[in-house]
Fold this protein.
Amino acid sequence: MHRHTFLFLAACFICAAQTSDSQPASSNVRNAEYPRIHSDLRITFRLKAPDAKTVKLHPGGDGLGKEDMKMTQASDGFWTVTTDPAVPGFHYYWFLVDGAIVNDPASETYFGYGRPSSGIEIPEQGTDFYLPKDVPHGEIRIRPYLSKITGEWRRAYVYTPPGYDVNSRKRYPVLYLQHGAGEDERGWTAQGRVNFILDNLLAENKAKPMIIAMDRGYASKPGDPANLFEDVVVKDLIPLIDTSYRTLTDREHRAMAGLSMGSGQALQITLHHLELFSYIGAFSGTIRNFDANSSYNGVFADPVAFNRKVHLLWFGTGTAENALIAATRAAHQALEQAGIKSVLYESQGTAHEWQTWRRDLREFAPLLF
Amino acid sequence: MHRHTFLFLAACFICAAQTSDSQPASSNVRNAEYPRIHSDLRITFRLKAPDAKTVKLHPGGDGLGKEDMKMTQASDGFWTVTTDPAVPGFHYYWFLVDGAIVNDPASETYFGYGRPSSGIEIPEQGTDFYLPKDVPHGEIRIRPYLSKITGEWRRAYVYTPPGYDVNSRKRYPVLYLQHGAGEDERGWTAQGRVNFILDNLLAENKAKPMIIAMDRGYASKPGDPANLFEDVVVKDLIPLIDTSYRTLTDREHRAMAGLSMGSGQALQITLHHLELFSYIGAFSGTIRNFDANSSYNGVFADPVAFNRKVHLLWFGTGTAENALIAATRAAHQALEQAGIKSVLYESQGTAHEWQTWRRDLREFAPLLF
């Protein structure tokens, strides 16, 4: 029996008897019967396009497959395809209908690839660290602000932990947490489930209560493509968070992490501003061409001073991120040889996808503050 | 000169010189050049669908037009159409590509019609009451909860006014505010701009600081289609809000309003539970077949008692909501004849769309508490 089949059936036996071999994905909109997840994690997708000539399923990322999959038309105008067993986690996807990019009306959309994109949640059996449980819950707060840097309205998504409103004198450390390319400030909540991950860690006493601030990693002035995100973080966002929330405002209580493009931003912004940050997390991103004397303006040149200042320099990568895992291991080794302490976490079997980054956060957050 | 043209040019002169006759809609995703709004509020939509046979623009609601509009294909694979001048406000839309429902990759999606649907924001010249301004801002808080009624996870969107976190002893009245059919708890924030409307009213001292709680108007147990939303409000949501936020918990400080389907829910829930509510708002909804002795279990039978208990019974309708405006005027008159005080607000020139409901909220909120 396939491993997924066994685990899936075991979970079904626990939660509710399922008579069918498949059930609607939890990410479907209310009452949508498709996409359906089979017991072996094959997925059947369906789209109504009665007059189309060709319809394909396009997977975003590797979790649903690496190639576009041709769908076949039934007499009722619906096109369907069933994939091979999927990797558990969150996967973007869309359809190609006679060459047009088409989101699935039956799934929620998530901001990725620079636009709203369909997504599907594939359960990972035996794992519930990012699911809502009957534990105390924090909030995600949407806070608009006018950027002094770009002159435009922006918004931060801010996680406040359970109990934040109860004890009005307690102050909290802050993790700044960034999405990847083509995503935005909503990503860590909608795709990443940041609030449930933290709620669950806190319920088990595995992490310290913290505020998590998430912003859009793109920031430019109208007509000027330069990305001013570093300035936005330092001059807009940190002051906004420190004046709007009960934060601990010293560098000992401020961390930054990000995934993919966001890992590069986290490394750059923290290593440029060690007066502001003392914990650093790079999820699916690494330091390339490490040189102790020149990388990041020579911040690594004095390893004793660096190790004293930086309490955590953390790299996480999925073992299915082929080129990246080798580069990350190499950087970790080079840092070690230069006397710089860092942590390397490898997420088993996952690729450049949100399941890797959910696991990153689960492992990273307990090491903070 | 068309009225819209004049106002639009005047606004452009004030905000920034525009050399082109059209500009990207504010609702476009970052860097998307289409849809484009012309100075006379015609809209040009564009979609890439190189192999499609037919592509149409489908307006959701009347603001962009009442009929599907055929798009024409250029040699580069893009299909375009330019509409007649649009009604200002927020409008849903999508494309029909060889019969398939296709959201516009260039616009944000909004939950409407039971699925994520594209939307476009058409500016109303001279009006900025729902736009972000440089005034103190409240927050929208996303709060997950496990429903005792349905056994399922739900979430409330909760507006807390500016200053909520500053004075930790102040308590606030609560408005429960509902979306329309096919929408969900996100509607009043994403489509309605509830937070900016309240922030702006509060900055002008036109409304009392209040908490606004918004939930999904659908609530059913797995396998049972009955909508248990009234029970969810009374037994889940009100206790959640009253225990999670610093609320004033008596009926004198609790209001409920809703739009379209939500107006029916607001009337039903409040009139069934006058022990809980004393302010009532029906946006684009009315009481049909009013009978003082039998409507809503006879709650109107004693007008003196009703008027003493209910501080506001409010009906709002757009003058372009043809059948509804007559019915609403008739109900208002029937209530008056029965000695029941109510307020009738008519939104000039708007239909069954969000611009009506934004104006409803602007007029309704100042009358509360």
User: Anything to note?
Assistant: The radius of gyration of chain B is 22 Å. Chain B has a mean pLDDT of 93. Chain B has two domains: 3-122, 139-367. The longest strand of chain B covers residues 89-97.
